[in-house]
Design a protein that fits this description.
This protein is of the alpha/beta class and 453 residues long. 43% of the residues lie in helices and 14% in strands. It has three domains: 89 residues; 123 residues, Alpha-Beta Complex (Aspartate Aminotransferase, domain 1), CATH 3.90.1150; 211 residues, Aspartate Aminotransferase, domain 2, CATH 3.40.640.10. The strands form four sheets. It has a seven-stranded mixed β-sheet. Strands 9-12-15-14 form a four-stranded antiparallel β-sheet, covered by helices on one side. It has a two-stranded parallel ribbon with strand order 1-13. The longest helix is centred in the N-terminal third of the chain and has 48 residues. The chain starts with a helix and ends with a helix. It binds 4'-deoxy-4'-aminopyridoxal-5'-phosphate (PMP).
Length: 453
């Protein structure tokens, strides 16, 4: 009797064990995946509702979450891919902003090379260089800017004034302040050829200044008298190479060169304009550092821009300037003394990603007849010594056929973009960021290719 009972109790024990293990695994899986889903949602919604996420960046949250999902799936769930596909189907892809998170993986690979340590007793003063016309610019930052322009050959800096700003956005405002006459009864007209960068009209008229006023598309501008024309090249949103279009003697030009870097466009000339704007946001991807610089020929204009920033923010964060200087120097360090790329050369890396993404997007667009993209001719890049087509930071996508509101159409497919009207152009167009995370960009192209009307 006792002998017969033993196998039965062993069976009951095994059955109970396996039931419990199954239950634990199931709980683990559901729990982790629910957490992961919640995290992904938070990461993707962040740009929309600007929620705080306890200091973690969108990328960090996203990669933690993806990591979690992958580890859960590889150890437990055999149908992870299917589940991801189902989840991706409902996920909103937000490519409205030009947030350059694409660069984060490069900088992560650079490890400690860009680490900056600033002691509590450093940079206490408002002043950086009292002898400089721009008294709040850090000499190290100026040196790094000059070094990088010399290496890339995209702008003349010798004999020019470098004015630092909290992003090139602040410098844009400083520039239109400096170029608008003080005593004129009428505000100075500010124009740019459509499609123009959507922030220009907003920033120009934000404070309803009596000094300047947004006057729209430069191609339709016929008012006599002085004016400011903004020339963005390569252009945001359509990536075109541009020059001034009004071309009258009373015109003052601001050249916005935010994207005049080799990963986006061949560097086929050395820019030498009166007032040129640059930013780390799009050159190195450090938008959060909020540092831009203006290269200015005229001393009086540079002085007035400095005055604007003095009255606006009493200078520019020293910590940010030091960090920007470090980043710019590390970029320059990825090339040898002759300008040849080293293994981890920054602009080559950026160029490779941008080329890959543009090919991927053009392939996706071919899958249906609903969309079209601008075409770019290739030209020789004096920096990288090769001929190539532009790989703009934004795709200017046109909805073909009878889709009149492309932004709305894309939103219906859970893709957030910025519609043409924001750029003074047709609603048949949308601007799409090409600088987002790989996972987001891949999901976007995959979804775009599947759209059927
Ligand atoms: N100019 C252009 C053409 C831009 O696209 C941007 C960024 N979207 C800016 C200026 C502003 O850049 P920053 O982050 O330096 O203020």
């Amino acid at each position: 009797m006792a002998d017969k009972k033993k196998p039965l109790s062993r069976h009951v024990l095994i059955l109970s064990l396996s039931l419990n293990i199954g239950l634990i695994l199931r709980l683990l899986y559901v729990d982790e995946n629910w957490e992961a889903e919640r995290g992904i949602h938070a990461a993707f919604c962040m740009e929309d509702n600007h929620q705080q996420t306890g200091g973690a960046s969108k990328l960090e949250i996203y990669s933690q979450v993806i990591g979690k999902m992958k580890s859960v799936s590889s150890s437990i769930s055999p149908s992870y891919d299917t589940r991801m596909q189902v989840e991706n189907r409902d996920r909103i892809v937000n490519l409205d902003h030009g947030d350059p998170t694409m660069y984060q993986s490069f900088w992560e690979q650079m490890g400690d090379k860009t680490t900056v340590v600033i002691n509590g007793w450093n940079f206490i003063s408002y002043f950086s260089d009292a002898k400089n016309l721009c008294w709040f610019v850090e000499p190290d930052f100026v040196r790094a800017v000059v070094r990088l322009h010399k290496l890339v050959g995209n702008a003349i800096t010798q004999g020019r004034h470098i004015v630092v700003g909290t992003g090139s956005s602040q410098l844009y405002q400083a520039a239109i302040y400096a170029l608008s006459p003080n005593e004129s009864p009428d505000p100075m007209s500010v124009v740019s050829a459509a499609p123009y960068y959507s922030s220009y009209p907003l920033m120009t008229d934000f404070l309803k200044s009596g000094l300047h006023k947004w006057a729209g598309d430069a191609q339709n501008f016929s008012k006599s008298g002085p004016y400011i024309e903004l020339v963005t090249t390569p252009n945001n949103p359509d990536g075109s190479t541009r020059g001034a279009v009004v071309n009258r003697n009373e015109g003052l030009l601001v050249h916005d060169y935010a994207y005049f870097w080799p990963q986006y466009t061949p560097i086929s000339f050395v820019a030498d304009e009166e007032l040129m704007l640059f930013t780390v946001s799009k050159s190195t991807g450090h938008a959060g550092t909020r540092i831009g610089w203006a290269v200015v020929k005229d001393e009086e204009v540079a002085r007035k821009m400095t005055k604007y920033i003095e009255l606006n923010t009493i200078g520019v964060s020293k910590e940010s300037q030091i960090r920007a200087a470090k980043i710019l120097n590390v970029v320059a360090d990825t090339y040898d003394e002759l300008g040849n790329p080293k293994e981890d050369a920054f602009f080559e890396h950026g160029y490779r990603i941008m080329t890959k993404r543009w090919n991927q997007l053009r392939e996706a667009v071919k899958r249906n007849n609903l969309f079209s993209l601008p075409k770019f001719s290739s030209s020789f890049c004096n920096f990288s010594h090769r001929k190539y087509e532009a790989n703009p930071a934004f795709a200017w996508l046109k909805c073909e056929g009878d889709i009149e509101d492309c932004e709305k159409f894309m939103r219906e497919h859970k893709i957030l973009t910025r519609g043409g009207k924001h750029f003074g152009f047709s609603t048949k167009y949308v601007r799409i960021s090409m600088l987002d995370l790989d996972a987001n960009f891949d999901l976007f192209t995959e979804r775009l290719s599947r759209i059927r009307q």
